[in-house]
Amino acid sequence: MLLPVVGLVLAGACSMGKCGIALAEEAKPAAPATNPLNPQRAYGYLNDICAIGPRMSGSPGMKKQQELLQAHFEKLGAKVTYQEFMAINPLGGAKVPMANMLVEWHPDRKDRVLLVAHYDTRPLPDRDLDPVKRRSGTFIGANDGGSGVAVMMELANFMPKLQGPVGVDFLLVDGEELVYDDNRDPYFLGSSWFAKKYSEKPPEYKYRWGVVLDMVGDSDLQIYQEKNSTSWHDSRPLVKEIWATAGKLGVKEFLPSVGYQVRDDHLPLRNTAKIPTCDIIDFDYLPWHTSNDTAQHCSGASLAKVGWVIYEWLQGQESAQAAN
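^ thats the sequence. predicted structure below, dont judge the formating
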């Protein structure tokens, strides 16, 4: 995951008091909603991903991950295809084969939502406290890369029975951070390629929304609204919908105030492909870009809560005609 543009902005939080006339007999409060997603299973998916090791673009680890994910999604009934392209490794200039993975659910539905996560890992833990590890250490990318993928793997168990008029595509983008030097190397290769192709040759269907899931597995989860996502007029309603869903479910980890402004895959998807897209990210993560970004710093509860909010939000989507 890329650098934030600005620091965390802690907006003034308003506490809402309950007012009104007390009644002699108050109605019993509704039973709290129950999360259908399985935290243990989601965490198991994350461990399976991390057990592969580094999953850098073009590496054997990436190939193993693709095989794991394709088998998982196809077993649950999805259609899996790849969008292949070539990129240049900024360290030496060698050509690197890239492949975005597109996982389609209910492809007959022409009104669609795009859920996005990057599934490549950074080449090195370049922000590690140990200078030796910064140059030659191992980066597992449990939260930064693995967590969004694990949420999608868990959500896949519910996608075949998703009701309503909206179809869903999972987009796992390659080359999000084939980066050795932040000041030199380009980010977002996969999402930029996808956005370019979508713009140049629009498909028969249309994505009404895009949602990026990045760094959503932190065991101390705090997800603020991302500043770009709230400032764009076309994605602002999307942010409001998702955070309102979290509030309805009682998922307090979604904080209804603006935090970091982040450069992420939502930029090319919104600016090039013209898909209104928001970024769901917890950037306050100490092991970021270090060798300590391992599964032990993540939790199944966090993965399941994020997946639950997205699943409930998807179920609440109406047809575009009805919405208008």
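The chain has one domain: 37-318.
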